[in-house]
Amino acid sequence: QLDALAREPMWRKGLNYLHGTGHGVGSYLNVHEGPHQIRMEYMPAPLRAGMTVTDEPGLYLQGKFGVRIENTMLVTHYTKGEFGDFLQLAPLTLCPISTTPIVLSMMTQEELDWMNDYHRMVYDRLSPLLDENERQWLADATAAV
């Protein structure tokens, strides 16, 4: 179900990617460590709080370009209700996303808000660990668009 949600914005434009959306990362450091994976093919292992999983949709157009933003996420508890336990993904990889190749006018307000919120979180978490020059670099790299 998560795989279809990740692909849906591309499917609306007649696009797709031919690799998995994510995979486990664990103690043996295999490239695609299970038991959980997020992909088009059925994978019977459910996500559970405490698991790590990558988030790596991408788009590759033959002879034109390719792009992929990959993060490692931690599966955490979100809430419990009458329909069961709900999980969420929290980013473990805290790296600015370069806005240089992005055509900002093509982004929706929701996408811009997500990127600005992500960059604010990256700055807030990392800046206390940096010296003044590094902090300025990070401020520039995570500036709102």
Overall description:
By secondary structure, the protein is of the alpha+beta class. It contains three helices and seven strands. Strands 3-6-7 form a three-stranded antiparallel sheet, with no helix packed on it. The protein has a two-stranded antiparallel ribbon with strand order 1-2. The longest helix has 18 residues, at 109-126. The chain starts with a helix and ends with a helix. 7% of the residues are buried.
List keywords for this structure.
alpha+beta, two-stranded antiparallel sheet, 3 helices, globular
Q: What is the radius of gyration computed over CA atoms, rounded to a whole number of angstroms?
A: 17 Å
Number of helices: 3
Strand order of the largest sheet: 3-6-7
Terminal CA distance reads 31 Å
Shape: globular
Mean pLDDT across all amino acids = 92
What share of residues is helical? 25-40%
The share of residues in extended strands comes to 25-35%
The helix/strand order is HEEEEEEEHH
Biggest sheet, in brief?
3 strands, antiparallel
Structural class: alpha+beta
- Number of separate strands: 7
Contiguous uncertain segments of 5+ residues = none
SSE blueprint and pairings:
Elements: H1 2-11, E1 22-24, E2 33-38, E3 52-55, E4 58-61, E5 65-68, E6 71-81, E7 84-91, H2 109-126, H3 132-141
Antiparallel strand pairs: 1-2, 3-6, 4-5, 6-7
